[in-house]
Design goal:
By secondary structure, this protein is α/β, with parallel strands linked by helices. It contains four helices and seven strands, in the order E-H-E-H-E-E-H-E-E-E-H. The protein is 28% helix and 26% strand. Helix 1 crosses helix 4. The mean pLDDT is 95. Bound molecules: adenosine-5'-diphosphate and magnesium ion (MG).
Amino acid sequence: MFQYTVTSDAAMQNVGAKIGQLVEPGSVIFLKGDLGAGKTTFTKGLATALGIQQYVKSPTFTLIREYTSGRIPLYHMDVYRLENGGGDELGLEEYFNGTGVSVVEWPQFIESEWPADYLQITINKVAADDNQRQLVFKPQGQQYENLVAQLAVAL
Ligand SMILES: Nc1ncnc2c1ncn2[C@@H]1O[C@H](COP(=O)(O)OP(=O)(O)O)[C@@H](O)[C@H]1O
Ligand SMILES: [Mg+2]
């Protein structure tokens, strides 16, 4: 487990960008954290590092937004609206095994669809400071352990 603290929106985007340089086709990133924690902000940085020029907007109502103009496709998902189930109808397996990187906000609502390996990042607000966030990285599987080791060096 690796932890890292950021103190600004830009620093959060930088963490996303560093990960954007390390992901491969089929990478799966799970983002946990309350509303306003910075999950979408992180994803914006990741998208930038992939070379995606479009504005990354929260997929709260669409559930999934696909961006295909970067180094590899980005599948950005926010499955908060599936808190009462229904994730089995989204065909998530095809995204997770696809040629892009999947970034999932609120992954706890599709837990039955999780692949064997993934990187889970939990973003915690630090009460004393509006702009401070603690990130906790929990890699599952060798590929993601390697990714986090490289990230720790890059940050
Ligand atoms: N260190 C930080 N990391 C991420 N976001 C931050 C940080 N400090 C302030 N913010 C602000 O908090 C909000 C996070 O919103 P968003 O990324 O949409 O969260 P979520 O997707 O988790 O609901 C943004 O308005 C962002 O500018
Ligand atoms: Mg969001």
